[in-house]
What we know:
- The protein has 8 helices and 12 strands.
- The protein is an alpha/beta fold.
- The chain has 2 domains: about 5-125 and about 240-265, NAD(P)-binding Rossmann-like Domain (Rossmann fold); about 125-235, Dihydrodipicolinate Reductase, domain 2 (2-Layer Sandwich).
- α1 crosses α7, α3 packs parallel to α4 (about 105-115) and α5 (about 125-140) packs parallel to α6 (about 165-175).
- The longest helix has 16 residues, at about 125-140.
- The model has no long low-confidence stretch (mean pLDDT about 90).
- The structure holds NADPH dihydro-nicotinamide-adenine-dinucleotide phosphate and the ligand O=C(O)C1=N[C@H](C(=O)O)C[C@H](O)C1.
- Pfam families: DapB_C, DapB_N.
Amino acid sequence: MAGLRVAITGASGRMGAELIDAAAGRDDVEFVLAASRTPEAVPGGDAPGAADVVVADADLGAALREREIDALVDFTVPEASVGYLEAAADAGVAVVVGTTGYDEDRQAALDAVADRVPFLKASNFSRGVAALRRAVQATVPALDGYDVEVTETHHSGKLDAPSGTAVTILDDIESARGGGDRGGDGADRVHGREGDQPRTGDEIGVHARRAGDIAGEHEILLAGNNEVVELTHRAGSRSIFAAGALDAAAWVVRRAPGRYDFDAVLNADGDDGSNGDRQ
Ligand SMILES: NC(=O)C1=CN([C@@H]2O[C@H](COP(=O)(O)OP(=O)(O)OC[C@H]3O[C@@H](n4cnc5c(N)ncnc54)[C@H](OP(=O)(O)O)[C@@H]3O)[C@@H](O)[C@H]2O)C=CC1
Ligand SMILES: O=C(O)C1=N[C@H](C(=O)O)C[C@H](O)C1
């Protein structure tokens, strides 16, 4: 099979740079197109053998078609991401989305993209967080009635809070509790605390810390019955997210249009390319 031809938006960003680096080191990637508002800021842009760099603007779709791109990988900001993904859909290009912090309107726009091309979105592309989520899904029902607090810690440049991963884990906790007393609509979440705020039984405390260049940490604390359980994941570097996203790109280009999740990629050993993993 021919190698993967991948486009990376937000190419000058923290994850953009990490993805370009990771793609350059993979045998299954044949060509990298770096798309950026600021091409001059893309690392290694002039180096021989470096990624082809284009301006991420209204002509992105044409650039994707001209370079015969198979998959677009987007780690940017929601306000830019929707336009990039729509350009990919117009060009018939599969998409992998790592961007977090979408509001409801933008989520709906992503759903429309997923109707048109293979679409894989994850709030976290690390294998460790996938395992952490499974541990949370098993532990919460086993410790019925225990208090739960979720804490995430990230670099000082992170925009959205709480992190996309924390939001995913909160959804997992509420599902594992059977929706909670108040219907699993997020109403049980208490973001930080100040002043007199006695804890209610069902509430889930949510804490976001920002400091230095921490790649990403998530901790779920469960306490009750004279015992404490802590489930923690710490990312040592952004390279784990880049590797997972490129694995996802290589996997999703062989699918029919529709929405897929990262677990399908992780469970893909011996996969024959059929579409049984569609969400
Ligand atoms: N799912 C996962 O595993 C992970 C997800 N993330 C998510 O990825 C996203 C990016 O994170 P990170 O790389 O740290 O962020 P950065 O701020 O470092 O990079 C984002 C890039 O997006 C582009 N951008 C920023 N603002 C705009 C705008 N208003 N319009 C158009 N383009 C814009 C810029 O690239 P340029 O100028 O080159 O176009 C910018 O460098 C975040 O949502 C983060 O939460 C991060 C790590 C892992
Ligand atoms: O912005 C980041 O850095 C990260 N964002 C993702 C999130 O919001 O959960 C994933 C990871 O934690 C790093």
